[in-house]
Each structure stands twice: as structure tokens, then as C-alpha cells.
Automatic annotation (TrEMBL):
Keywords: Lyase, Metal-binding, Zinc
Domain of life: Eukaryota
Family the entry assigns: Belongs to the Gfa family.
UniProt-listed InterPro entries: CENP-V/GFA, Mss4-like_sf
Gene Ontology molecular function terms on file: carbon-sulfur lyase activity; metal ion binding
Chain ranges of the CENP-V/GFA domain: 2-113
Protein name: CENP-V/GFA domain-containing protein
């Protein structure tokens, strides 16, 4: 079962299942990650369990106008997952993929989607299939659309 933790290991989690891996190029993710993009694992909330620590949270409206909540360690400040009240995020957890404990696991988690590619830095080359908000009409599309601009 995959496990993960914040930088200081005060917060620890585990989850079941595969998840849906999404690279996000939105500007808030850039700021949050301190990097050019974020890598996220979208999971049903029921398959994600904190095994140590209690996160602090901060909420702000996402693109939907409904709250997106960052869950971060009160000790080290590291955001390890995101939840939200928008239609697609409700019932889901977005785990920051770099928090996985097994460094080899991330190598096996091939991203299924890239979003907010209009903000993708020019030097980042990938050949992933790109989907944009609204292109999907099914449930995953709704999830993606609500996941976008996590901090919007
Ligand atoms: Zn911590
Ligand atoms: Zn983002």
C-alpha cells in the first residue's frame, strides 16, 4: 500500500488503489510547489487515510467559486494533500505525488493528464496526451475541471 509523508514526517498517510495522476501547470501550483508544475494523485477520499498527525488547513475559492483546501503540516508547513467542495473535488483527495515515501513508486505512476498547459514552461518537453478543462464530458472531466487552479 503506498505511503507518504510531509518533510518532517509529522503527517503520514496511506492509500489504496491506483489513483489518477495529473500534472498541473497552473500558476498557483507553481507557487505552492516552488517549481514549474505540480504532480498530483487524484484519489477517492475513502481510499486515503492519515496515519499520523493532524493537518492545518487553509481554504480559498477555486475556479468553481467553491473552497479549495490545502492540508499542510503545522510543524514544517508542507502541503501534502488538497481537498475541495467543488463538484469534482467533493469526495476526492488530491495527493501531492512528491510526498510518496517510495522514491521508485513515482517513476511507475505515469501521468494520465496534463492540465493548464497554457502555463506550461517552454523548456518542459513531454509527449503526454493533453486534455483541457471541459474536453471531458464524463465524471473524470468534472473532477479535472474542479481540480484545476487548485489554489485559484
Ligand atoms: Zn511536517
Ligand atoms: Zn494546479
Amino acid at each position: 500500500m503506498p505511503t507518504g509523508s510531509c518533510l518532517c514526517k509529522n503527517l503520514q498517510y496511506e492509500y489504496t488503489g491506483e489513483g489518477h495522476v495529473i500534472i498541473c501547470h497552473c500558476l498557483p501550483c507553481r507557487r505552492l510547489s516552488g517549481s514549474a508544475f505540480s504532480t498530483n494523485i487524484l484519489l477517492p477520499r475513502s481510499s486515503f487515510h492519515l496515519t499520523s498527525g493532524t493537518p492545518k488547513t487553509i481554504s480559498r475559492p477555486g475556479d468553481s467559486g467553491l473552497d479549495v483546501t490545502l492540508n499542510f503540516c503545522p510543524e514544517c508547513g508542507h502541503t501534502i494533500f488538497v481537498t475541495g467542495e467543488g463538484a469534482g473535488l467533493r469526495g476526492s483527495v488530491v495527493v501531492k505525488a512528491g510526498t510518496l515515501d517510495d522514491p521508485e513508486l513515482l517513476d511507475k505512476l505515469i501521468p494520465a493528464e496534463e492540465i493548464y498547459t497554457e502555463h506550461k514552461v517552454s523548456w518542459m518537453q513531454t509527449e503526454r496526451k493533453v486534455k483541457r478543462p471541459g474536453e471531458n464530458s464524463g465524471p473524470m472531466g468534472a473532477v479535472l475541471a474542479a481540480t484545476l487552479m487548485l489554489l485559484g
